[in-house]
Amino acid sequence: MEKLSSPKKTIEVIQKYNFDFQKKFGQNFLIDGRVLDKIIDAAEISKEDFVLEIGPGIGTMTQYLAENAREVLAVEIDKNLIPILEDTLSEYENVSILNEDILKVDIGKIAKERNGGRPIKVVANLPYYITTPIIMGLFESHVPIASITVMVQKEVADRMQAGPGTKDYGALSLAVQYYAKPYIVANVPPNCFMPRPKVGSAVIRLAKYQQPKIEVSNEKLMFQLIRASFNQRRKTLQNGIKNFSELNFSKEQVAEALEQMEVSASVRGEALTLEQFAHLSNLLDR
Which uninterrupted H or E stretch holds 114? Predict the structure, then answer.
């Protein structure tokens, strides 16, 4: 069977079903087998794995996953793609398709029923407009996940991996790095997709920490402090926190905590490491 990763085969399927690309779902189908091989390798898919695929499109990556995994559940929001997936994946007995919005799926229940509660692997070619809510939703729900290997906009991948003091460093960098170790696998140019996106993409692997490597007494407070610090990037950390509506700390309280940390009172959020944000949160959470 000819793989869907061939541009010719993708065009055939699209024409056969008279499929119209939906801008609202950010649909860009991969048409490069080498990139798909890199994704499978990076995700370290084996015959023991249960894989959750988000946004299978016409099933291009699903075919590769099915050949390497024990079982694949492909979650697709666009009902117009369901008959196409049922056709393109008909030869694979270890694939099931769920027509649902991933943000509304009980992934914990799926992991329990399909994988005995053991950590699952998530693989996806994510629409750019919803990348962050999906990834943060997976982390914050605390469902058992071994790793998340995703195709995202290159700029977003750079932000996930960025460190303190760089222009890309921000709330997303800190949130991702609290939960997982990010590693950019490959940069992917627009000509690897149909239709071509206007920007470059990247495959990033997020190896989830099974235990948080940073100890923090109040996770919610730490993330509020992080958001406050990057809400107005040019402001000092003290002013950012004082002006943030969800928090109720005075400049004096923040200054006192920073002094205990031996950090300058005029520091900006982008200069603090994740460990320092956790320390600040622990000092203020009293």
Answer: helix 107-115
On whether the CB atoms of residues 190 and 154 are closer than 8 A, the answer is no
pLDDT band for position 1 (50/70/90)? low
- The span from the CA of 50 to the CA of 70, in Å, is 6
DSSP reduced 3-state for 2: coil
**DSSP symbols for 222-256:** HHHHHHHHHHTTTS-HHHHHHT-TT----HHHHHH
Q: Which are the contacts of 233, defined by CB distance < 8 A and separation ≥ 6?
A: 268, 269, 270
Question: What would the two tokens of residue 30 be?
Answer: 């991969």
Higher-confidence residue: 138 or 23? Answer: 138
- Tokens linked to 238: 């003290």
Is the whole-model pTM more than 0.85?
yes
Which domains are present in the chain? Answer: 7-208 (3.40.50.150), 219-284 (1.10.8.100)
Task: For Cα atoms 210, 213, 216, give the angle at the middle one, nearest 5 degrees.
Answer: 110
CA distances from 70 to 37, 53, 280 (A): 17, 13, 44
Cα–Cα distances in angstroms (integers) from residue 190 to residues 6, 31, 154, in the given order: 16, 10, 11
